[in-house]
Structure formats: C-alpha cells, structure tokens
Amino acid sequence: MEKILELLQNLITFDGSNKETANKTIDFCKDWLESKGLKPKILINNGYKMLICGIGNGDRKLILNGHVDVVSGKPDQFQPKIKNEKIYGRGSADMKAGVVAFMVAISELKGEDLADTSVELQLVTDEEIGGYNCANFLTEQGYLGDFVICAEPTQIGIGFQAKGILQFDVHIDGKSAHGSRPWEGDNAIAKALDMYKKVLDLPFSKESTDIYEGPSINLAKIHGGEVYNKVPDECTISFDIRYLPSQSKEKILEEIKQITDGEITINLAGPSVRNEVSNPYIQQLIEVTKNVTKDNKVHIFGQHGFADTRYFSRFDIPAVEFGPEGDEWHGDGEYAVIESLNTYKDIIVEFSRNF
Prior knowledge:
Blueprint: H1 2-12, H2 19-35, E1 41-45, E2 48-55, E3 60-67, E4 81-83, E5 86-88, H3 92-109, E6 117-124, H4 135-140, E7 147-150, E8 158-162, E9 164-173, H5 188-199, E10 216-224, E11 234-243, H6 249-257, E12 263-270, E13 273-274, H7 280-293, E14 300-303, H8 309-313, E15 319-321, E16 326-327, E17 335-337, H9 338-353
Parallel strand pairs: 3-6, 3-7, 7-15, 8-14
Antiparallel strand pairs: 1-2, 2-6, 4-5, 5-17, 8-13, 9-11, 9-12, 10-11, 16-17
Helix pairs in contact: 1-3, 3-9, 7-9
Organism: Staphylococcus nepalensis
Keywords: Hydrolase, Metal-binding
C-alpha cells in the first residue's frame, strides 16, 4: 500500500491542467516505470505527450488507458492531504488513483508468463479537453486491442455504456422593431425559446433504453439582443445533447432541422459507447471484481458523460470505464479512497493474468 500511495502523492503535485505540466507528469511516469525495469516509450502529437508501455507477447491485448491531465484547481489542491482514510487533491480521483494502480500493476506483472496475453499501458495528457491529440491519435495510429479499461473513478463499478455527445449552436434570424411595438417585429430570442420547447417534444427526446431513461438535453447558452428598446433580430442558442447508444447524431439533427430554419453549427460530436453486459471480457471483469472484493454485487451502469473509451468504441473495441473509489472530482474536495487503490490494483493484476 505504501508504494502505491506514495506514487499517488507524487502525481498529485503536478498541476496537469496545462500541457507543459501534463507533459512533465508523463516524463515522471516514464522515469518511474524505467526504475522498475520496464521499457516505456513516449509519443508526441501537436505538442502533447503520450506514454506507451507494454508487457507480455500474446496475441490478445488488454489496454489500460489513463490520463494524467486534470482540470484547473487551487494551489493547495496540488499539495496532497491524507485524512480519514482518504487522499485529497486535484486529480486524486480523476484519475491519478487509477493511473498509479495501473503503473504498479504492470510493474508487478513484469516478467510473468501471461500466456496468450499482452498488456499495454497508455497514458495521455488531454482527456479533459477532448482527447483529440492523444487517444484519438493513438487509436488512429493503430494502438488498439481486444478490450480497454479506462480508469475513470467508478467506485469499482463498471460503466459499460456511455452516451454520445452532440454540441451545436443554432443561429436564428428575426426582424427588428421598436421595443414599444414588438408586434411589428419578429423576436429572435422568442423564436429560439420556442425552438427549445419543440426540441423537448421531438421523438428522439422521448426515447429510452433499459439503462437510460432518456437522452440528456441541456440548453447551454443563449445570446441575443442589444438594447432594451429594440426587438432582437438575431439570437444564437446552444445545445449540449448526450444521446443514447441506440441513437445517432444524424437522426437527431434531421429531427431538429424539421423545427427550425436557423443555421446549425456543430461544435463537438462524439460517438456513444455501446457494449453489452454479455460481452465475455465484461463478464470476466465482473467475476474477478467479485473475487477480489469478496462482494457478490458489482454495480453495472451507463455513464451520462463521456471519456476516451469512445475513441476505441468507434473501432468496435469493447471499452469500459472502471476505476477506484473517490468523489468530488472537478470539485474543491476531490478525494480518492485509499483502501480502494490496492483493491483496484489487485483486480487489474488478476484480470490481466486471466485475460
């Protein structure tokens, strides 16, 4: 436990909310892995560093995917604190706890006969800003496998599905008029709000699955109007839609185009993660988790947000979010549960040995 906790304390001190320090974190991880006799390598894309470290020579590949970048935090959050069996600090849960467990796990597995299995650790530096420079790059360059574990904080539950993401702006035109005679104009803001109400009644908005009650539809931004005494003739309304694995962004956009003549500009789109619980690797992970935790129940759920799993999912590679216990990630009180670090590491070791 001391080894894994000390490593996490060291990683928390790196303010990886900027590219330069996230890259330095990768350098630190490389040095640590080399000190354990491993042979990591660093790739760079658009100035962002990635670390790759493999063990075993089997044809079946397990990928352990983690990110060392973090969202911004207060200075004291990069000074780790231990209290009540928890370690506090920015990135403690999201997701340096999982990263250190991965690192210690492959250091323990080094030199073992993994039979037909190879394990590849992938550490990246831009997950919090979209993953386009790292996970997107790695998967396009062929760094793929048979199964992917992404160590997001899941309380040692398995996030086996995830919603897709569709963020877009709609520019709506109206007609200006004097504010005292609004009936002579066509209020663009009012049109935008009316459009939002119609979106909530579209067929895709009413769909559900066994995992999800429905898609997430967030009215994220609205910009329009100049002065009090003028009917606004322009408005831009912005949506953040997290759609179901059973849905497609193309069908959603088709429905939206039927209710507006506004100009639609897509800001961000990413696929959903569409695994089934019956997948043999997921079933094996469930059994290993039960065995290590001595608990017959493993929480299986669908994520509303998204992670780097989506980059593997687009290649039809099963990828899950599965990580240690923690809470308040992205918040001031972010922490990881210390006891779960070793438990999680042991799960990864046993799963790798039996993969």
